[in-house]
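Protocol step 6 of 9: fold each sequence in the batch and record its structure tokens directly after the sequence line. For illustration, a two-sequence batch is reproduced in full.

Sequence one:
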Amino acid sequence: MAGLTWPLVALVLLGALLHAGWNALVKSSGDKPLDTALVHFMGAVVALPLLLWAGLPQPQSLPFIAASLAVHIGYYVALAGAYQHGDLGLTYPIMRGFAPLLVALASAPLLGEAPSAGAWAGIVGITVGVAMVGLAHPGQALHHRKALAFAFANAAIIAVYTVLDGRGVRVEVAHGGEALRYILLLFVLDGLPYPLLVLLARRRSGRGGEVLAYARRRWGLAALGGSASIGSYAIALWAMTQAPVASVAALRETSVLFAALLGWWLLGERFGLQRTAGTAVIVGGVVALRLA
């Protein structure tokens, strides 16, 4: 395995920027659960013709895709709960920021990859920096216990599907396949569960008609967001065939920093001293990972 090189670091950071881009799209919307559902559905629509062109993944990787899809259902349920009980600005940094720490803890027993002391320093640094950047008002978090419970549960779920997909894409490549085929089939099959959950919830509340009207207005932006989501995860999974899964997972979650920067630039959100300090901690973590 080649390990983390500066070009690979730059590529994963690009993937993090793409991930932040579609999340900024959701954050800027008036209906976050519906926009999230629409982005995932349009991601499947974008991925389907690409899958027909690229071909199906190897049979040996299909059990990993099936397991990942099952775990993703839990992810969507926890995501909906987190957004129901707390703001995206509170729950998103917790979900994304603490998952790499859990991936690192699981890497040795599940993947045979024990992070070095330098890698641990980088992973912890990125986790702490992400928390500093994302949680602009950490004292308020204690007043949203249900949101915190869902967010931390989802951090664990994200860690589980990250390890599954990291292992699955390596099996795909080891048997002569391509990482792109794995990610495309995953996106095609994963594009329905969460939108269906949102649609059913709206119908139960008598608001089913607003889903189609909203989709007509936002489908173009959602397709762009879905494409960014595909690109982001495709980069991450391919990188996991070149470098340790825990290191790639930690680098990918710098998306929280990019989301904050996009919020400052596009939405006029305050950046502030805490986020500036958190940015410095994240940069130090990235450097530590590269030098590990």
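Sequence two, same batch, same settings:
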Amino acid sequence: MTSENSPTAPDSLPKYLEEGMQKQDGETLTDMIAYAEELIEWQQRPVDPDDLPDGAEPVEDESSKNGTVVKEMVTCGDETCSCMTDDELHGPYKYRYFYRKGKLTSEYLGKA
């Protein structure tokens, strides 16, 4: 890289961040890198078992870099289905639970 060509920001980086970063000195950018790494680690931390829904069973052999993988039996939401009335749940299904902006979020991964 020459002094004439600045690095190109990734397309996923919002313009306001790109412009703000270009105005910072090296020390501030280094501090931003350290903060970003800490934030990534915090967001990808395993989910506290107490935060998981009742019946969610962590899957030990499928650790996730970002959150906790669990098996769950679930209701389908169809009011006429026996899962809603007779506790005959569907599954098991795998979900990944993770924190996004400090809030617990889940992502469906498929049948267990």
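Proceed to step 7 once all outputs are recorded. Observation for sequence two: The radius of gyration is 21 Å.
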